Amino acid sequence: MKNRVALLLSGSAILLSACDRQKQAEPINEDTLISRSVDSMLVITTENGKKTNLFSALVMEDYEFARVPFTEYRKGVEAIAYNDSTGVETSHIMSDYALHWTDRDLWELKGNVMVVGEEGRKLFSQQLTWDRKTKKIYSNVDSKVEEGDDVFIGDGFEADDDFSRWTFRRLTGRVSVDVEPSKPQDPAAANDSVKPAAPEPQALPQTNETPQSRRTGQAPEAERTPVPMRTVPKP
After folding, report:
1. Which residues pair with 72 in a beta bridge?
2. What is the pTM of this model?
3. What is the largest CA-CA distance in the chain?
């Protein structure tokens, strides 16, 4: 009996040891290992006491042990740059998803990407790459640019990261919108324009009526019919 128990214990120990070795032998995929996670992230940078940049994200997940380190923002990002001397907003970037390749300082933005420049120029796209080392942004999908009253549509978009200069490799459409308001009409002038025209005076009938005929009740000369004279024979 004791020998059987000893054999069972020995066998269990061997099985447990083999399982432990198997677990230790399984490699860890560092590309999917999250080294740091932050919720409701907000970063504000300043220079000489003045705000220069603002960055916010709902979720940040850092993969610093990956073969190519990157940071993922699964719920989108928002980045705003300010003029360090005037404090005026110079650029504004938003997207539903973002990926930042740390070593290359390269951003990949996807989903409802919007970029607003200092002069109000706007870019809309579903994909945008931002190379911070070269200070360039570009897209390989259809994009739209709104500049004043003009709308440009094309693919192969390229621009400076401050959106001061931009171009399309292939422009597919352009729309110009005239937004000049119509001049309001003067109410007085409008009322004058709808007034009915005065009736023209009608000519009175021509008669030979005189003041004397009106007093005596006689018809005007033009209306009296002469009566022929008859001679009565004498008896």
Report:
1. 61, 99
2. 0.62
3. 197
* Contact status, residue 117 vs residue 94, Cβ threshold 8 Å: no
Q: Record the tokens describing residue 113, joined without a space.
A: 């990407």
Cα of 78 vs its chain's centroid, Å:
16
78's tokens: 């928002």
Question: Do 58 and 39 contact (CB within 8 A), yes or no?
Answer: yes
Q: Sign of the C-alpha dihedral, residues 56, 88, 176, 138?
A: negative
Bin 171: left if φ > 0, else alpha if -120 < ψ < 50, else beta.
beta
Identity of the residue numbered 61: E
Q: Is 53 exposed, middle or buried (0-12, 13-18, 19+ CB in 10 A)?
A: middle
CA distances from 107 to 73, 81, 161, 175 (A): 11, 16, 12, 30
pLDDT tens for each residue of the chain, 235 residues long = 444 434 333 444 444 455 555 555 566 776 678 889 999 999 999 988 888 999 999 999 999 988 899 999 999 999 998 987 788 888 899 999 999 999 999 999 999 999 998 788 999 999 999 998 999 999 999 999 998 889 999 988 999 887 888 899 888 878 765 555 555 555 555 455 445 555 555 554 455 554 444 444 554 444 444 444 444 444 4
Is residue 56 a contact partner of residue 41, using CB atoms and an 8 Å limit?
yes
Q: Which residue has the tokens 């997207």?
A: 95
Q: How far apart are CA 167 and CA 160, in angstroms?
A: 10
